[in-house]
Amino acid sequence: MARKLIAAGNWKMNTTVEEGISLARKVAEASRNNKVLTILAVPHTHLFPVSKKIKASSGVRLAAQNCHHKTSGAFTGEISPAMISSLKITYVVIGHSERREYNHEDNALLALKTRAALDAGLKVIFCCGEALDIRKSDSHVAHVKNQLSESLFMLSATEMKNIVIAYEPIWAIGTGETATPEQAQEMHFAIREMLRKKYGKRVAENTSILYGGSVKGSNAAELFSQPDVDGGLVGGASLNADEFVTIVNSFGRKAG
Ligand code: 13P
User: Fold this and answer.
1) CA distances (Å), 184 to each of 126, 212, 220, in order?
2) Containing H/E element for 54?
3) Which candidate, 42, 137, 205, 210, has a CA 20 to 30 Å from the CA of 2?
């Protein structure tokens, strides 16, 4: 089984429900390349209404942007993995750098969240990536390795089938500064090597690794053409339907 090509949009805390429905509809209508999996990570308030408005046949899948690590309980304002899967939502994003920074989510907590999400039947888009000072000190590969070792590598090889990894260098998120295709490829290759060492060739070859950080219609094709880049996790540019559809259609020969 070859790994999936994925164009994922992360809307973050943007759009009203009405705007979100309109955006998702436009994306769903245009995303008919069945070789590319399109995922929209929408705000929690949008999961149900958007899921009702896009046809399953469009091939577009939805993701929650976060979940709690407990099944239920006195956690005001939180949302459990079971609540998300009860809406027939497929994915949840875990470990985004904004949640690591603003909500102080560390690797140990992200391991618990990943466990809880998989137990509830969700697939996980697990984010990793280094800050600028780490990149400048040339310890970015070691940093990402540590993030994955402490949060993901307790999973079994079978469970890894339900994991998508998103490499998002923090210095490239929302800054307009994109990693070069070579920088992205270097890290994606390194991540695949980590997977190979931990789980063997099969898991390494079958795990989709997405790049995130200022992906746009104008740079997606070059990034996605790298051998170990299986797609993108797109913030700002996913809020514009035309721009995002351009990104969905940027896989060139990989998507046949
Ligand atoms: P931008 O595409 O806006 O840089 O955001 C990337 C991101 O954080 C996706 O999760």
Assistant:
1) 16, 9, 12
2) none
3) 42
For a pLDDT cut of 90, what percent of the chain falls above it? Answer: 91
Judged against a pLDDT cut of 90, whether residue 2 lies above it is answered with no
Query: For the chain, what is the domain count?
Result: 1
* Collapsed DSSP state (helix, strand, coil) of residue 37: strand
Residue 10 structure tokens = 């992360």
Give the integer Cα–Cα distance in Å for 240 and 247. 11
Q: Give the DSSP letter string of 172-241.
A: GSSSS-PPPHHHHHHHHHHHHHHHHHHH-HHHHHH--EEEESS--TTTHHHHHTSTT--EEEESGGGGSH
pLDDT score for 1: 56
Counting ligand 1 atoms within 8 A of each CB, the residue from 39, 126, 214 with the most, and so the one to mutate, is 214
- From the CB of 95, is ligand 1 less than 6 Å away? no
Ligand 1: nearest atom to the Cα of 172: 4
Domain of 201? 5-255
Atom of ligand 1 nearest to the CA of 238: 2
Distance of alpha carbon 168 from alpha carbon 130, whole angstroms: 8
Helices 17-30 and 241-248, packing angle to 10 deg: 40
pLDDT tens readout for residues 213-236: 999 999 999 999 999 999 999 999
Backbone dihedral region of 95: left (phi > 0), alpha (psi from -120 to 50 degrees) or beta?
Answer: left
